[in-house]
């Protein structure tokens, strides 16, 4: 039976008006958790990007998978309701929103799972989909001396939110993204079924959900691979004036055997000037370190490159750290004299962006809009990308970090839903724009579109990371030969297109046929 907009089919098959009253919906759902109105001030209408805001019908704070299953089943009994899991709302383009739908605040489930599991000599942690990575880190290290192997740069993101994308940082060259470091999931599908899945059990759902942009199920629990946590990290930045030398060294480091390189390799582009956010002052790791521009050659261009690396060690290893680090640095060709280095605890290193957040919050730009753009660009096209985008379009910076570092395709599992450029080596590029008082947000968003359109026009081998597209053609092009698999997975696990409507890939259609959204 198909209900009309704003109506719900009750179990007795009699159609009636959907009660938009919080207490009656709460009662009819019989939740352990709670329900709030989706008014405009609600967190369900906001995300980190600050570019979009849509109003849901209700914000649901579930107590766990059972509640989420009930919410999905309620939506299934209507003709139009959709359901969006909201992790910590750190999307840029409204991906965790549901206009007129039901937003599930996954943070209310954060404490449901936390179990340390030694299995056959390896170690794992079971955590809630709504847990923040920063809490996973601090609890794992302080209680067990172990920690996940693969991270994001910033840790106020939820486990379910990053696993729905990939989860990438400077450890991914070695261990793969976070999606390569999970062995089991508990998922509530778009049919409302609570399903355990892994590489060997319900594997199509397992791989579909990883990098699946929330399209196939809500992750309520994840089993994450752990490693012994080091005590300390030597954190180092070195500078290059030539892109080719920067990429040569970065690629050298990420292609060494495990244990024969740094434990973390990233990099960023910065302006060859004294601008406090975009230029030389953004490089030193410690305020007492000066960036001395006299070391930069007169022939250097408008932008320079910084390779950022880190070396893990235990306190007892301290005497051997210099030898190991200097051995690796000795093989690199950075500009002599432009090196900054500090020793920090392992947790302090991983929480570095959370500390920067506190500083940026103090100047008010953290809460403003963030028209960010993330891409994966194939090694074969990265020199062209540097020449056109960094050296020309973005030569004055973006008011925040412009990350670029290499990753290895072989560390990613191509059974997941993530799509990558061709070729073994590709670069993640992240334009992390902050907008204090520079050009308008519209201008910056237009510049992002210009970059993406240029990539398409010249036939660059690239993919958007955290993709945001508006038409069926764009999504088909994004997924390429993986599109039909993505659509089949949708038909299997969320045939009514209930889940994650804010991704704008599928739209809920009363006729029950999944079609890509046209705008
Ligand atoms: P949300 O924004 O709440 O949700 C994102 C999508 O996932 C939505 O479609 C939502 O419906 C879905 N979703 C959320 N929870 C679940 C769940 N439990 N099950 C199924 N679907 C779910 N990414 C990196 O890879 N590396 C980085 O270093 C990195 N740094 C970042 C730093 C900052 C400051 C910010 C704002 C973002 C960063 N990101 C990074 C991007 C980040 O990984 C994604 O935006 C991620 O989706 C945010 O997680 P979230 O918990 O806030 O998810």
UniProtKB/TrEMBL annotation:
Q: Which residues form a coiled coil?
A: none
FAD-binding PCMH-type domain location, by residue?
Answer: 52-229
The Swiss-Prot or TrEMBL record lists the needed cofactor(s) as: FAD
Domain of life of the organism in this record? Answer: Eukaryota
According to its UniProt entry, one GO biological process term is: cytokinin metabolic process
Its UniProt entry gives the catalysed reaction(s) as:
N(6)-dimethylallyladenine + A + H2O = 3-methyl-2-butenal + adenine + AH2
InterPro entries cross-referenced by the UniProt entry: Cytok_DH_C_sf, Cytokinin_DH_FAD/cytokin-bd, FAD-bd_PCMH, FAD-bd_PCMH-like_sf, FAD-bd_PCMH_sub1, FAD-bd_PCMH_sub2, FAD-linked_Oxase-like_C, FAD-linked_Oxidoreductases_BP
One GO molecular-function annotation for this sequence?
cytokinin dehydrogenase activity
Give the EC number: 1.5.99.12
One Pfam family it belongs to:
FAD_binding_4
Database matches in Gene3D superfamilies:
3.30.465.10, FAD-linked oxidases, C-terminal domain, Uridine Diphospho-n-acetylenolpyruvylglucosamine Reductase, domain 2
Record bears the keyword Oxidoreductase? yes
User: What keywords is this UniProt entry annotated with?
Assistant: FAD, Flavoprotein, Oxidoreductase
In the record, the note on similarity to other proteins reads: Belongs to the oxygen-dependent FAD-linked oxidoreductase family.
- What is the protein name stated in its UniProt record? cytokinin dehydrogenase
């Amino acid at each position: 039976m198909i209900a009309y907009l704003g109506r719900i089919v009750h179990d007795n098959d009699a159609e009636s008006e959907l009660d938009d009253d919080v207490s009656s919906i709460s009662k009819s759902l019989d939740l352990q958790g709670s329900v709030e109105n989706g008014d405009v001030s609600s967190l369900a209408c906001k995300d980190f990007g600050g570019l979009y805001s849509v109003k849901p019908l209700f914000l649901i704070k579930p107590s766990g998978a059972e509640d989420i299953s009930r919410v999905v089943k309620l939506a299934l009994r209507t003709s139009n309701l959709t359901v969006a899991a909201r992790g910590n709302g750190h999307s840029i383009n409204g991906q965790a929103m549901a206009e007129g739908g039901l937003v599930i605040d996954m943070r209310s489930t954060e404490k449901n799972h936390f179990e340390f599991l030694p299995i056959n000599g390896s170690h794992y942690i079971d955590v809630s989909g709504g847990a923040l990575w920063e809490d996973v880190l601090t609890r794992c290290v302080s209680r067990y001396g172990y920690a996940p192997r693969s991270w994001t740069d910033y840790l106020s993101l939820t486990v379910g939110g990053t696993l729905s994308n990939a989860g990438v940082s400077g450890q991914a060259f070695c261990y793969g993204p976070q999606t390569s470091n999970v062995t089991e999931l508990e998922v509530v599908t778009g049919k409302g079924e609570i399903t355990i899945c892994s590489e060997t059990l319900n594997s199509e759902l397992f791989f579909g959900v990883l990098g699946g942009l929330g399209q196939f199920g809500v992750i309520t629990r994840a089993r994450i691979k752990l490693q012994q946590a080091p005590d300390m990290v030597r954190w180092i930045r070195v500078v290059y004036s030539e892109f080719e030398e920067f990429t040569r060294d970065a690629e050298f480091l990420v292609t060494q055997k495990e244990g024969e390189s740094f434990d973390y390799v990233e990099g960023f582009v910065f302006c060859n000037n004294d601008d406090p956010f975009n230029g030389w002052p953004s490089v030193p790791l410690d305020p007492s370190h000066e960036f001395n521009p006299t070391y930069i050659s007169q022939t250097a261009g408008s932008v320079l490159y910084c390779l950022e690396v880190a070396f893990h060690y235990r306190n007892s290893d301290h005497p051997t750290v210099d030898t190991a680090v200097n051995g690796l640095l000795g093989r690199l060709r950075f500009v002599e004299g432009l090196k900054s280095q500090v020793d920090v605890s392992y947790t302090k290193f991983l929480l570095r962006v959370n500390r920067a957040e506190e500083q940026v919050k103090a100047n008010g730009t953290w809460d403003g809009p963030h028209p960010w753009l993330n891409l994966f660009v194939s090694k074969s096209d990265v020199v062209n990308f540097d020449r056109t985008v960094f050296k020309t379009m973005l030569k004055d910076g973006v008011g925040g970090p412009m990350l670029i570092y290499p990753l290895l395709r072989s560390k990613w599992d191509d059974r997941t839903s993530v799509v990558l450029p061709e070729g073994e080596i590709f670069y993640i590029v992240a334009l992390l724009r902050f907008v204090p008082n520079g050009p308008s947000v519209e201008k910056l968003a237009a510049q992002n579109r210009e970059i993406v359109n240029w990539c398409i026009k010249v036939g660059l081998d690239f993919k958007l990371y955290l993709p945001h597209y508006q038409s069926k053609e764009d999504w088909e092009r994004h997924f390429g030969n993986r599109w039909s698999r993505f659509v089949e997975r949708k038909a299997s696990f969320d045939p009514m297109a209930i889940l994650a409507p804010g991704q704008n890939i599928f739209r809920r259609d009363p006729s029950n046929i999944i079609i890509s959204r046209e705008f």
